[in-house]
Design goal:
The structure is a single chain. The protein is an alpha+beta fold. The protein folds into three domains: 95 residues, no CATH class; 101 residues, Tetrahydropterin Synthase, Chain A; 58 residues, no CATH class. 55% of the residues lie in helices and 20% in strands. It is built from eleven helices and eight strands. The strands form three sheets. Strands 3-2-5 form a three-stranded antiparallel sheet, covered by helices on one side. A three-stranded antiparallel sheet has the order 6-7-8. It has a two-stranded antiparallel sheet with strand order 1-4. Strand 2 and strand 3 form a beta hairpin. Helix 8 packs across helix 9. The longest helix has 43 residues. The radius of gyration is 46 Å and the shape is elongated. The termini are far apart.
Amino acid sequence: MKNLIGNIEPPAGSTRRRAGPDLSLLLLRIILLGIAVALILFPGPEAQTILDPPGDPAGVVLRLILILAALVLVSSIRKANEWERAIVLRFGKFRRVRGPGLFFLIPLADRVAQIVDLRIRVTDFSAQATLTLDSVTVTVDAICFWLVWDPQKAVLEVEDYQDAVVLSSKTALRNAISSHDLSTFLERGDIIGKSIQEDVDKKTTEWGITVQHIEITDIQIPEALQDSLSRMAQAEREKKARILLAEAEIEIAGKLREAVSIYAKNEGAMKLKILSILNEGLKAGNSMMLVPNSIAEELETRDVFGLAALNELKKDTTNNRRQK
């Protein structure tokens, strides 16, 4: 699982991608190793007597041992990013959680069991061919937003916490599908997703994991059922349209009743309304207008447009012609 520069590779089957070799850590190790080798190969006067005692050929072997020890010590320097935590084991027993930044491992005793990412993760999952409460086979896809807040619990208490979160979410999704009918699932998907999130979070909290949100992304139903649902939706829309039209007619009738009440109480307002109707007809340029008898008699009585004078003039003209 460890690469040449001491980083931890993702486990098999994981979709997480690392950015590649950490060149800064590699450069730091090379610099420290170079300094150590230089001090071993070119020691000071006091160290020279220790490494190369007079008449003792074992100085070369001692230098090689020191260089090897320096190589082991330098390779024990590790680094974790700001969003990562390292689970350190000492002789197979949990020691501590290290990171972020540089940290040191005791050679041959400590090892990094796993690097845990503390950022929010998005995992997609689906419930294949599940029956709803009204016996409809559906396939539901969803996504889960979750994060690890206690890396010690997540690594030490769960073998594969990512698979555990996905499988728990699938189980909760199947239970939600089987306990609701299709119409409820289609209309209240957000509320059902919230209930699924709460059920999964109760289980994962014990593992040091929090499920923040579960969102239903797609609901696939049989094609035959899609046609019937389409016809049902169309009938529902027609029903709402007719109801709205009837409500509009009722509202219009109420307004007309209020207008009749006002005109009945105010004769002047009624006459002004009659005149406005005639005025609009004349503005339209109509050569002929059909006027009710009641309105015509009213106009003739009041001689609003001079109709009586026009009739008298017409009668006088007719009499003069006869006399001639």
